[in-house]
Amino acid sequence: MNDITHIRVLIHCRGAGADLFRTLVSLSCQNTGPQRLHIALSSTTPTDHETSEARLLHSALGFGSLQVLDATGMAPAKALNIAALEGDEEWLVLVPEGTRLSPGFVSRCLEAARDGKVQAVYPSHTAGDPAKAPLTRVRPFSPEQLTRCNPIGPAVLLRRKAWELMGGLRPRVQLVMWDFWLRMALEGGKIIRVPELLAHCRPLHRLTPWQDGHAKALLVVAMPGAFEPDICRWALALLRGDAWAKPFEAGQIPGPRDVRAMFAGMEPSIAPRHAAWTCTA
User: Fold this and answer.
1) 193 DSSP β-pair partners
2) What is the enclosing helix (H) or strand (E) of 57?
3) Phi, psi dihedrals of residue 144, rounded to the nearest 5°
4) With 70 as the cut, is the pLDDT of residue 8 above it?
5) Region(s) of the chain under CATH 3.90.550.10
6) What is the rounded average pLDDT of the residues 119-128?
7) Does residue 199 contact residue 101 with C-beta atoms inside 8 Å?
8) Phi and psi for 251 in degrees, rounded to 5?
9) If DSSP codes are grouped into helix, strand and coil, which group holds residue 28?
10) Handedness of CA 31, 37, 42, 45 (dihedral sign)
């Protein structure tokens, strides 16, 4: 790792509670040294950080800098975009509030990104996905996965240039991060996964079936060139309210075969990992 590497860490947070400080403490314990980290807190309640206790803890953690930004009433995506604007660090780190990072998170991700073609790096984590147990076995990342699910993150290191090329996050999109990674992959950005478990994150928020299906359909409609014609047909039909178009498995976009089965009134195929495969006596 370059000895002069400095990183801007973007955190959207509600206030100055225990969840945030748990995350900040784990960042201060990075084996790269906390002085290389420049923390940008986009807080929905910025006054919480003005107490003497909060200021004392902020200063005691030894970061290169710590800035509290007023994100009152802002969508998280907009707040993170604003937090990324300042500074000139080559690398950005996105960390959800409440995440605890292994001391080797930053150094291991930087090591994996030595290849100049790599735009983003994420490790194995405990967030899982909305439909499964918190800890799941995952495959090596490939861009094609993004047309079915979003396996990336939620704690990620990425190049500032890639963030700027994408124009940051699109606040009006419901599946903000999935949209961002899909756009990056379509632009040829190289994303890799570090196999070590380096981020302990909260389980992802689970949407209702209607919310989940609607959000996925909007993602498909926003980038139709990334998906097969059958998938676009499904998305448009679901948004119209056609009875045959179902939300499909939580966090998953159906494949062409699944869409054809839906239209024919057949039950979708069940993957071996699905709970329905479990035998009971």
Assistant:
1) 122
2) helix 52-60
3) -60, -25
4) yes
5) 7-200
6) 88
7) yes
8) 75, 5
9) helix
10) positive
What is the average per-residue pLDDT within 39-67?
A: 91
Residue 19 host element (H or E): helix 18-28
**What DSSP line would sit under 84-116, residue for residue?**
HHS---SEEEE--TT-EE-TTHHHHHHHHT-ST
Task: Give DSSP secondary structure letters for 208-267.
Answer: PHHHHHHHHHHHHHH-GGGS-HHHHHHHHHHHHT-TT----STT-PPPHHHHHHHHTTPP
Angle between helix 18-28 and helix 52-60 axes, rounded to 10 deg = 20
Nearest Cα to Cα of residue 37 among 58, 15, 16, 14: 58
Judge whether 225 and 187 are in contact, CB under 8 Å.
no
What pLDDT score was predicted for residue 152?
Answer: 92
Per the CB < 8 A criterion, the answer to whether 152 and 177 are in contact is: yes
Residue predicted with more confidence, 95 or 267: 95
- CA-to-CA distance for 122 and 105, rounded, in angstroms? 9
Question: Is CATH 1.20.120.80 what the domain over 7-200 is classified as, yes or no?
Answer: no
| DSSP helix, strand, coil percent of the chain (3-state; round to 5) | 40, 15, 45
Considering the chain, what is the average pLDDT of its residues? Answer: 88
Tell me the three state secondary structure of residue 147: helix
